[in-house]
Amino acid sequence: MNLFPYEQGYLDGLCGIYSVINATRLIVKDIRGEEATKLFGKCMRHMEKRKSLGKVSTRGVDKSDIWSMLKNLVLVYYGINVERPFYKGKKVSADDFFKELREYFEKDGKRSAIVCVECAEWAHWTVVRSMTMKRITLFDSSSMTTINISRCSIDERTKKKLYRLMPELTFFLFDK
């Protein structure tokens, strides 16, 4: 039996914090090195005020935590606009969700989107950097690079598709 080492992300739930940092980096290009470390620290201190860091590290963050980091850190320190297009929980079809996401990325300006992707045994916050009719291109903390739309669903009852995306857990970030 081959034994492989665990990689970051297998045992921790920090993908939500990384998604906030990576989505911001796509818009504010000079966030690297020390500045990225500072933003990570701000996110961790912010979360420490909301929850136990043990829980954040092992169970991750939820949509209210993502929204709180975006609203209280990214908006304040970097002046990035943030929208929650499906926040009210209005029912949307998969076609309409993907159409709105595509149209969002066709607009002028620097853009990113944070989405939650669910698979059989995991859920993961990631960043969309662009989208075509067939593919979603990611800027992801766990080395995912693309998702084929044909393998996606937004319906939790659909077991035939590999990935489930949840419109209500989608955040749009863009420059002013």
Which terms summarize this structure?
single chain, 176 residues, alpha+beta, Cathepsin B, Chain A
What secondary-structure arrangement, pairings included, does this model have?
Elements: H1 15-27, H2 34-50, H3 53-59, H4 63-78, E1 81-83, H5 94-106, E2 111-118, E3 123-131, E4 135-138, E5 146-148, E6 152-153, E7 163-165, E8 171-174
Parallel strand pairs: 6-7
Antiparallel strand pairs: 1-8, 2-3, 2-7, 2-8, 3-4, 4-5
Descriptive account of the structure:
This protein is an alpha+beta fold and 176 residues long. The protein has one domain (15-174): Alpha-Beta Complex (Cathepsin B, Chain A), CATH 3.90.70.10. The chain has 5 helices and 8 strands, in the order ααααβαβββββββ. Strands 1, 2, 3, 4, 5, 6, 7 and 8 form an 8-stranded mixed sheet that branches. Strand 3 and strand 4 (135-138) form a beta hairpin. The longest helix is centred in the first third of the chain and has 17 residues, at 34-50. The termini are far apart.
Q: What does the radius of gyration come to? A: 16 Å
Strand content: 15-25%
Largest sheet: 8 strands, mixed
Taken in chain order, the helices and strands follow as HHHHEHEEEEEEE
What is the number of helical segments per DSSP (H or I, 4+ residues)? Answer: 5
- Determine and state the CATH class: Alpha Beta
Mean pLDDT across the residues is 92
Class derived from helix and strand content: alpha+beta
What overall geometry do the principal axes of the alpha carbons give?
globular
How many β-strands, per DSSP? 8
If classified by CATH, what would the architecture be? Alpha-Beta Complex
Name the poorly predicted regions: none
CATH superfamily: Cysteine proteinases
- Measured between the Cα atoms of the first and last residue, the distance is 53 Å
Helical amount among residues, as a percent range? 25-40%
CATH topology: Cathepsin B, Chain A
